[in-house]
Design a protein that fits this description.
Elements lengths: L5 E8 L2 E13 L5 E5 L5 E2 L6 H10 L6 H7 L7 H13 L17 H9 L12 H14 L13 H14 L5 E4 L5 E6 H12 L6 H11 L1 H4 L5 H8 L4 E5 L3 E5 L5 E6 L7 H12 L14 E4 L2 E8 L2 H4 L1
Antiparallel strand pairs: 1-2, 1-11, 2-3, 2-9, 4-6, 5-6, 7-8, 8-9, 10-11
Helix pairs in contact: 1-5, 1-6, 1-8, 2-3, 2-5, 2-8, 3-5, 6-7
């Protein structure tokens, strides 16, 4: 019997292992059966922003109607680049709202260059610049479409929007939410099993044409640059593997699925994001997913010493030795 978390990655510095990372991974075959797992595939996790495609599916089901480029931003933890901020404003404008309606946490852009530019330009932290503003713009636009309240109550688990999202989870993940907490942006944070997360991504990636889930998958795969940013692993991965639906989440969660039904979900137990890309690479390679067209920078997790590369984080343990 496996333990909850097992050794899954190691970080080296100047030729010596400095840190070890434990986690869990589950991969699904084309028919949805388990291809392999490391650690407990039923461990309950907060998917964090990996929940966004599920939330967006519920929004579309409730009446959100956006072109693919804007719908992709609803699924995003965006970099805060100009195209991202303009898209969030456009989602709100179409609903007759503006950025003053946003109830998410204020922040600077996620992208380091845009963060520094905002400070140089004298801008303060704002809800619009925060990486979840696309999701929140979509939530508010959904409320307008469904005639639900658009005040700050839209963040409450008891709001009709959030109840609809919670009710959609069993349809996508084949299980109900195990718990509801508070996410970093202020929206409800649903918890579920790791295999439930993989199943949900599989449901979205294989959804029939015209369904809410298919619209979300099509938006993400046709506009991966809106889901993250040009240097983000989630964007590069979708650019390199046509049809792949992928979304990263805070505290080192990552989930992907292909239209043929294969899927992977992982969680690094200590929340170390540096372990997330190489572990996903190892899992996808073991699942037989072709990664030849994926930019190698997608997987790179360097360790720096005095400004230069002196080590890196790589997948380890049973994931690569089995």
């Amino acid at each position: 019997m496996s333990t909850t978390y097992e050794l899954i990655a190691e970080t080296t510095r100047s030729g010596i292992v400095e840190s070890q990372h434990f986690g869990a991974v589950v991969a699904l075959n084309e028919d949805g059966t388990v291809a392999f797992s490391v650690g407990d595939p039923y461990v309950v996790v907060y998917p964090r922003s990996s929940m966004k495609p599920l939330q967006a599916t519920a929004m579309v089901d409730a009446g959100l109607d956006l072109p693919p480029e804007l719908l992709a931003l609803v699924c995003a933890s965006h970099d805060g680049r100009p195209e991202h901020l303009l898209a969030a404003v456009e989602i709100l404008r179409r609903a007759g709202l503006d950025e003053s309606s946003l109830g998410n946490t204020v922040d600077y852009p996620l992208d380091e260059v845009e963060h520094e530019r905002a400070i140089r330009d004298g801008k303060h932290r704002s809800a619009l610049q925060m990486n979840c503003s696309g999701k929140h713009s979509g939530m508010l636009a959904t409320c307008v479409a469904a005639s639900w309240p658009t005040d700050s109550s839209y963040l409450s688990p008891e709001h009709p929007l959030q109840r609809h999202i919670t009710a959609m989870i069993p349809t996508l993940a084949n299980e109900p939410a195990a718990h509801i907490g508070v996410d970093g942006c202020g929206a409800p944070a649903h918890a579920m099993s790791l295999i439930g997360l993989a199943r949900a991504f599989r449901t979205i990636a294989t959804a029939p044409r015209g369904s809410a889930a298919h619209r979300v998958a099509q938006a993400m795969t046709s506009h991966p640059e809106m889901v993250g940013g040009p240097t983000r692993d989630v964007t590069r991965l979708m650019q390199g593997v046509p049809g792949m639906v992928a979304k990263d989440g805070a505290e080192a969660v990552f989930a992907v699925a292909l239209p043929d039904g294969r899927a992977v979900a992982l969680k690094i137990s200590d929340g170390a994001n540096r372990a997330r890309p190489p572990v996903m690479q190892a899992a996808l390679e073991r699942l037989g997913v072709g990664l030849e067209k994926v930019d190698p920078a997608t997987w790179d997790s360097p360790v720096k010493g005095h400004g230069r590369r002196v080590g890196l984080c790589v997948a380890a343990g049973p994931l690569v030795t089995s």
